[in-house]
Amino acid sequence: MSHNKKLLIPSMMCADFGSLRDELDALEAAGADGLHLDLMDGNFVPNYGMGLQDIEWFCRNATVPCDVHMMVEHPGRYIQKFATMGVRVIYVHPEADPHVARTLATIRELGIRAGIAINPGTSFSAVEPVLPLCDYVLVMTVNPGFAGQAWLDFVNPKIERLVAASHEGANDYEVVVDGNCSPKHVAQASAMGVKGFVLGTAGLFGHGPYTQSMEALRAA
Question: Which of 3, 91, 93, 160 could bridge across to 69 with cysteines, CB 3.0–4.6 Å?
Fold first, then answer.
């Protein structure tokens, strides 16, 4: 994979669960670089995402790598289980884990790529100490838990700061954004140096054939 290639990662929370096999085949055929799987507990965020059995199904059936975004309290409890399922990247929120550094280190020890997920209201300085433990940083440009929200522009300076710090000192991570990734916002964030985009209803689902939408996003 070319180092400059942008990663387009459909959020499977937005897929049609009535015909998952067709959805998966269509998204992979359209050139998805991975699948983004949301786990929510109704506690850390006021909503519920997929069950563990859904995540297991995607990991078993997808030919592209699956990442899990854990919007749950005490995410360390699930790391071992995800390792056995074959998850390739795990994102945790610092607010949900009093020992986030230990959790990130454990994820890496299990041979999985570790990521920190950053809410709109979480500052760069709040996560700066653990950035050397991250392979990816997932910046939320909307408040987590719901699809279809507007991009929060006040997050942009934080994205720029995270990109600038991504290969400084002990840091070696890529920045991915999640929330309202329309062609316009993909172009804007791409110009800032963002590597990956989690795609939901703003740029992919509900816009006709996936191949067409993916091509438009790649062009952006």
Answer: 91
Which domain CATH number covers 210? 3.20.20.70
pLDDT tens-place string over residues 50-98:
889 999 999 999 999 999 999 999 999 999 999 999 999 999 999 999 9
User: Among 67, 97, 135, 178, which one carries the catalytic annotation?
Assistant: 178
pLDDT at 186: 97
Q: Is residue 187 part of a domain?
A: yes
Q: Does residue 16 have an active-site annotation? A: no
Where in 60-171 does DSSP place strands (E)? 66-71, 89-92, 113-118, 136-140
Q: How many domains does the chain have?
A: 1
Instruction: Report the C-alpha gap between 8 and 199 in whole angstroms.
Output: 7
**Domain extent for 53:** 7-219
Q: Which of 38, 67, 97, 135 is catalytic?
A: 38
Model confidence pLDDT, tens digit, residues 151-175: 999 999 999 999 999 999 999 999 9
* Residue 97 annotated to the active site: no
